[in-house]
Fold this sequence. Notes:
CATH class of the largest domain: Alpha Beta
Radius of gyration: 23 Å
Oligomer: single chain
Shape: globular
CATH architecture of the largest domain: 3-Layer(aba) Sandwich
Largest sheet: 10 strands, mixed
Amino acid sequence: MALNLWNxxxxxxxxxxxxxxxxxxxxxxxxxxxxxxxxxxxxxxYGPLRSCDPPITVPAWAVMTSSKKxxxxxxxxxxNRADHSYDKHVIAxxxxxxxxxxxxxxxxxxxxxxxxGIPQTFPxxxxxxxxxxxxxxxxxxxxxxxxxxxxHEIAKVVGEYLLDVREFRSDKKEAxxxxxxxxxxxxxxxxxxxxxxxxxxxxxxxxxxxxxxxxAFWAYMDKTHRNHCPGNPFENAIFDYYQFxxxxxGELLKLADKDTTVFIVSDHGAQKMEGSVCVNEWxxxxxxxxxxxxxxxxxxxxKLNVDWSKTKAWGDGGxxxxxxxxxxxxxxxxxxxxxEYESLRTELIGKLEAIPDQNGQPxxxxxxxxxxxxEVRNGMPPDLMVYFGNLAWRSAGTVGxxxxxxxxNDTGPDDANHGQxxxxxxxxxxxxxxxKLQGLEIQDIAPTILKILGVPIPSDMEGKVIQxxx
Length: 470
């Protein structure tokens, strides 16, 4: 008898994570054509899920599963300053997360866990069960599972396992599309195998393909995107993929009995990318950043010859921009006096929020001091966090365009940026009949899972229990 049929009165939790799933697409535009997701909503509860700040994959899944905000975790993005030097950075993989995640707590309580592809789980840490690492794994030659030997079992089940899409920011659209579908097919096949053949109390998987297909194909779908071409062959690529994922979810639901609480969640949403603001070009133009020599072609910041004796600030590219100030006594060649620090931040906020688009129209940029977002700020927080166009515009860190605007991603073709709200769907044992919820926050997920499984909730968790999920 398959293990998933044993102990039928045993409470379980199944979490299906869809990285970057957009609520407007799921709840409003396509719900009638996503029958399995619709069935979960009709039997349960749903609503928009406020992501963390910043709303990006790293650190959002860690926030969701630890109930700790990025400031507490000390992780503000994929790459973080390692210290106050100018060039040392660290990649925020699993070793960056010092807080317990929900499966650590469950493992200590003797609960069996199965984890697949959850961001910031490579290198794999020991759990009471099975862990398959995430897209930060360099390749499948690495030891990306716990136990280590389980990767050989994966090969027998799905063949060559795909951790991520190799070149999703490229012009190889047909190849990207095929690889996304193949990756997702194998990930869900592995999930079905584990749910059927292994014992579990807590199951969680994250499918990164939703994020990848939206970055690669949003302009092909969105008629309002500046790069949209009517009648293009990929107009339905994102919709077809959402339908494919919905069908895969349907197969997992067959393995969730009536005592299993099912969650479908995303870490953030998506929206069209209007363009990019070249933050360091702007800082040079405004006199805050000085180079010994200006490059003639777009050049990454790390390769620039910066005159630190005349530089007050510099910025990182990405979904949002992190502004660092060159503070005397903190940075090696700092020139910003500590007494000038706050007035300089105020000055920069005013100027950054006033940057218009290329036609002189306001874009609605939001700039935050980290202390406005986080009570606790561990690690190396930026001095300012800039959401250009309130995340509708990306930040480009390169210099050499002779413009503060570009309409392409400086890391390769990209059609979408992130949105501040993801999706939350839950089907608890007691039907909620399509109850729409408000006020949901990403840090609420972990304590809710612990509550459902009857495990004490640590007092230092920063979220609250979602009662309608219990």
